[in-house]
């Protein structure tokens, strides 16, 4: 007999989905995780200085608060939180580690999905919830000679803790969100660090500090105080979203914060000029750090604005023709976000392949369902990423929507449901139309959009509007096929 639900991925989305299934009285499910532990991107990334860039009180599920040690939690605290959730809700029997899904195929006759595991074997399920996320596949730059480098090299998401950087010459390729966190840490011990920057990031001050015991005690005694703090953080995120996604005139305040931050931390005018982005704030991911600019000003750190042209055995050749020696190369070049479920192969009705359906860019109705792929649900799917605010807020809405869909299947004695093409098309048209006023399509190249400029990743409005859209499952936009 097939499982009622198979969940792919055991990060925040997968764990949250599993908890919701149990709360809904659905115990016949399995969570398939390719790695040997839960945690998703927080498990995979372990670079020095890794913390969340969303304040801890909002980077947690609304149904389970946590006694966070500081305003922006470190990686290990987040993993502890996820493990506690799994233990508290008895998820261990449902978790299958070392179970990477290589392919998923829907059989209309049996109204079930067959999942083929990379290590061998298959699993069948009536419904599939894919919680693989957008930040799981490291992206390496297309720089000739990467394989010719004689020393150790790695991507920030696969940190080599066995290599000692003390006194070494380190080349860092990229200045994305990860590099902004790990460069200040490695600069403290490395002999020299060359940071290769294609485009300067916007870096805003980070209001981080440890929580005082009195504050934590207040949160524990007065839940309304914690809710008020969540609301305050959420409102700030929505204000930033207004400027990035709705109208640039609301970017005046964050732009002023950035300018003051840069002037205060980079007194050298030549270096400061290198740190000025050439694009609209929000077009690329906005970073928060109190350490990035001071790290660039260190005597052992050199910000290279000539792009890395090729890599040779002993270093990096930049576009200025200079070969800068390196003992170690670290790639802080982000992830292959627009590919979404790759390399997993997904086959729906009539043998339709998902990668073909998405050949012009991924899209899904509400970021959750794709026409032609019945009983297949996405968490953190296309157009549900945020330029600001907490993705967990989005996930909770998506999880509730999926539960509603599963309950609808049971209540209507349906074998499967499939979103109507016109509903998906109308939603996709609205997303692209709404995105035209956002910072993401103002000309920079970022992981939010495809090479053609199509917004495939971000939600183009306030997050509370998304929660309103997914507050209940809408069967009128689906075709339901009855059993038998």
**How much helix is in the residues?**
25-40%
CATH architecture of the largest domain: 3-Layer(bba) Sandwich
| Beta-strand percent range | 15-25%
Number of strands: 20
Q: Which CATH C-level class of the largest domain is it?
A: Alpha Beta
Helix and strand composition category: alpha/beta
Estimate the global geometry from the Cα principal axes: globular
Distance between the termini: 16 Å
- Name the poorly predicted regions: none
The tally of helices reads 13
Whole-number total of structural domains? 2
Q: Residue-averaged pLDDT, rounded?
A: 94
**CATH topology name of the largest domain:** FAD/NAD(P)-binding domain
The CATH fourth-level homologous superfamily of the largest domain: FAD/NAD(P)-binding domain
Biggest sheet architecture: 8 strands, mixed
Give Rg in angstroms: 23 Å
Structure description:
With 484 residues, this protein is of the alpha/beta class. It has 2 domains: 3-137 and 336-482, FAD/NAD(P)-binding domain; 146-209 and 217-331, 3-Layer(bba) Sandwich (FAD/NAD(P)-binding domain), CATH 3.50.50. 30% of the residues lie in helices and 18% in strands. The protein contains 13 helices and 20 strands. The strands form 5 sheets. Strands 1, 2, 3, 4, 5, 6, 17 and 18 form an 8-stranded mixed beta sheet that branches. The chain has a 5-stranded parallel beta sheet with strand order 7-16-8-9-12, covered by helices on one side. α1 (12-23) packs parallel to α11 and α5 (213-221) packs across α6. The longest helix has 24 residues, at 223-246. The chain is globular and about 70 Å long. It starts with a strand and ends with a strand. The model has no long low-confidence stretch (mean pLDDT 94).
